[in-house]
Amino acid sequence: MNAKLIIAALVALGGTQLAMGWGQKGHDTIAAIAERHLTPATKAALDSLLDGKSIVYWANWMDNASHTPKYDYSKTWHYKNIDADQSYVSAPKHSKGDVVSALNREVAILRSPRESEAEKILAVKMIVHFMGDLHQPMHLGHASDLGGNTVKVKFFKNEANLHSVWDSSLPEAAHKWSYTEWSDQLDRLPEAEERAVMGGDFDSWAEETYGICRQVYEKTPKGTVVSYNYIADWTPVVEQQFLKGGLRLADVLNQIFDPEYVPVSSIKK
Ligand code: ADE
Ligand code: ZN
Ligand code: ZN
Question: What pTM was estimated for this model as a whole?
Fold first, then answer.
C-alpha cells in the first residue's frame, strides 16, 4: 500500500469511529463519586473482586474493550436509542441489547451463585461504566442520527458532532478539573437530597436522561455553533448528570454487595 492509500484508509477509519460514552473525565468522576458512598461491606467485596484496584481504575475500560473482537458483542450496550416519534416505552429494543438491558443482565450475574468469579469481575467493570453512559443524554438519543453522531455542529471554530460535544468537549470546557477535583466540587448534596436522587431503577433513570436528551436536541439543531453561552447554559446539567450517575452507581453496588444496605427503592426486577 502506498502512503496516500494508507492515509486515506486511516481517515476513513477515523470517520467511522463512533464515540462510546462520556469521555474519560465523566466516567472517572462518576466512579470516584460512587466510591465515596460505598459501605464498608461493599468496599470489601469490590476489593476482593478487583484485586485491590479502585472502580475508578476500570471506569473507562469498556470503551476500549468494546472495540476489540473479544467484547464486540457489547458494542450496543453503551446506549439506548429512542427516535423522535417514539416514547421511552414504545421505542423498539435493539436485538443485540442496550444500556438498560446490559445493566439488568450484569446485576443478575452478580446476584447469581452460579456465575464464575471471572464473569462477576467483568460484570462489575460493565456496571461501573454503563451507569456512566446511562447519564449521558446523547446515549439516549435518536437511532436515526446515531445518538447525535451524525448531527454536525461546530465547537467554537472546529467541526464537531452533537454526540462528541456531550461526551467530552462540553465537560472539558465546563471546568479544567481532574476527576478528583470534579468529585470534590460536586459531591456536596445534603443527605436527604442524595437519598432522593438514589430512588428509582435503570428504566426510570434512563427515562429521566432521555428527557434531558430531548431538550438538548431542541436547543442544538444541526449547524449550531457551540460557544461560551452554550457551555454556560449546559454546565449545570453536566454537573448534575455526573453527580446523579455517581450516587446511583454507589446505590446499585451497595444493593448488590451489602446485605444490610437499605435502599430507597430496589433495582431488583
Ligand atoms: N454510539 C454509537 N452509536 C450510538 C447510537 N446509535 N446512539 C448513541 N450512542 C452511540
Ligand atoms: Zn461507553
Ligand atoms: Zn458517547
Answer: 0.93
State the ligand closest to the CA atom of 147.
1
Per residue in 121-174, pLDDT (tens digit) is: 999 999 999 999 999 999 999 999 999 999 999 999 999 999 999 999 999 999
Show the beta-strand stretches assigned E in 28-94.
none
Ligand 1 closest atom vs CA 20? 1
How many angstroms is it from 160 CA to the middle of ligand 2?
19
DSSP E strand stretches across 47-168: 152-155, 158-161
CA distance 131 to 23: 14
Q: Which atom of ligand 1 is nearest to the CA of 142?
A: 7
**Judging by DSSP bridges, how do beta strands 225-226 and 158-161 pair with one another?**
unpaired
* CA gap 50, 56 in Å, rounded: 11
Ligand 1 binding pocket (C-beta < 6 A) is 18-20, 79, 81, 139, 141, 143, 146-147, 149
For the chain (length 269 residues), average pLDDT per consecutive 10? 48 56 94 98 97 96 97 98 94 96 98 97 98 98 97 97 98 97 98 96 98 98 98 98 98 97 86
Residue nearest to atom 1 of ligand 1 (CA): 20
DSSP symbol at 168: I
Nearest residue by C-alpha to atom 5 in ligand 1: 146
Q: Domains for the chain: give ranges and CATH numbers.
A: 3-10+38-257 (1.10.575.10)
Which ligand has the shortest distance to the CA of 131?
A: 2
